[in-house]
Amino acid sequence: MRESLELTEVPSLGSLYAKALAMQAKGLLPGSKPALLVLPPVEHRVAGLRVDRDHLVAYQRLMGDTVREELPSVFVHGLAFPVAMSVMVRGDFPLPLLGMVHLTNSVEHLRPVSPVAELSVLAYPTGLREHRAGTQLDLVAEVREGSELVWRGVSTYLARGVWLGPKPEGEHAPRDPFVPPMRTGSWVLPADTGRAYAAVMGDYNPIHLSAPTAKALGMKRAIAHGMYLAGRALAGAAPHGAGYSWTIEFSTPVFLPSTVDVAFGDEERTTMFSGWGARSGKPHFSGSVTRT
Predict the structure, then answer these.
(1) Concatenated DSSP letters of the chain
(2) Is the pTM of this model over 0.90?
(3) For 164-181, what is each residue's pLDDT tens digit?
(4) What does the pLDDT look like over 197-256, one tens digit per residue?
(5) How far apart are CA 104 and CA 280, in angstroms?
(6) Residue 33: is its pLDDT beyond 50?
(7) What residues does the MaoC-like domain cover (predicted)?
(8) Integer angstrom CA distances of residue 72 from 76, 79, 104, 200
């Protein structure tokens, strides 16, 4: 049974990142004992959420999407993300937020959502489990219009080097080599891509903003937001005026500036997509969109 906490408003991502930084600076991070790695049985809720039209149009233009009277799925994710993140900066959340690796997203966009709809968001953590590099978990976010569920997303994250039990020994089985599919396009991502996305969606995670802020958190350069990449992919793959589901899996970060080669291909009701480094040939992401 989860305890429900009703938030008075959607928290700003800036304040949440500041809280996470302060906790890290004070050493308020999870202990190393497996018994301490327990997810809090809580859910955070926010009601009465309305869309800012200027932000919606700015998002659609940034992604190269059609400016239309319908909320793109990644934009809905952006509305729900601060509520989910507020769970991850609780004092009883057992994993460090900063440095956590975004692995996958799986989303059900159950029907078109109007920009004038009044929405509510519920978010909770679940699925704490082992990963070859540490511990992973799922953050679930549900968006409703009235009592109707219109969107549900599961974001999977990895805390590297944090173990549920003893650290596994031995080497992992090598992955199959990546063979790029036939390229259907390229995205040129300038150095300010992360700042442009943050200005629209409010996600000012330091690893996305500049080389100095990214280096402070252990990255060699700033990297593109995973949801920016997902939004670009869905702008070319998601249907209009219908429900759909989509997934994305992240392989290696996109360092900025960069050029990403992409491929889109249709299989019955599903569009498959993938992206990789134009120069390095390394896979960055892959996913699919299925029309319902």
Answers:
(1) -PEEEE-SSPPPHHHHHHHHHHHHHTT----SSGGG-----EEEEEEEE---HHHHHHHHHHHT----SS--HHHHHHHHHHHHHHHHTSTT--S-STT-EEEEEEEEE-S---TT--EEEEEEEEEEEEETTEEEEEEEEEEEETTEEEEEEEEEEEEET--SSSPP-SPPPPPPPP------EEEEE-TTHHHHHHHHH----GGGT-HHHHHTTT-SS-B--HHHHHHHHHHHHSPSSS-EEEEEEE-S--BSSEEEEEEEEEETTEEEEEEEETTT--EEEEEEEEE-
(2) yes
(3) 888 877 666 677 888 899
(4) 999 999 988 899 999 988 887 889 999 999 999 999 999 999 999 999 999 999 999 999
(5) 22
(6) no
(7) 194-265
(8) 7, 11, 18, 14
- Banded model confidence at residue 25, pLDDT cuts 50, 70, 90: confident
Count CB-CB contacts under 10 A for residue 36: 10
Give the end-to-end CA distance of the chain in Å, rounded to a whole number.
32
Q: What number is the average pLDDT over the span 143-157?
A: 98
CA-to-CA distance for 209 and 256, rounded, in angstroms? 9
The encoded tokens of residue 224 equal 């593109």
Query: In this structure, what token pair is assigned to residue 41?
Result: 């049985």
What is the C-alpha to C-alpha distance for residues 96 and 82, in angstroms, rounded to an integer? 16
- Whether the CB-CB separation of 122 and 79 falls below 8 Å is answered with no
Q: Is residue 28 predicted with pLDDT exceeding 80?
A: no
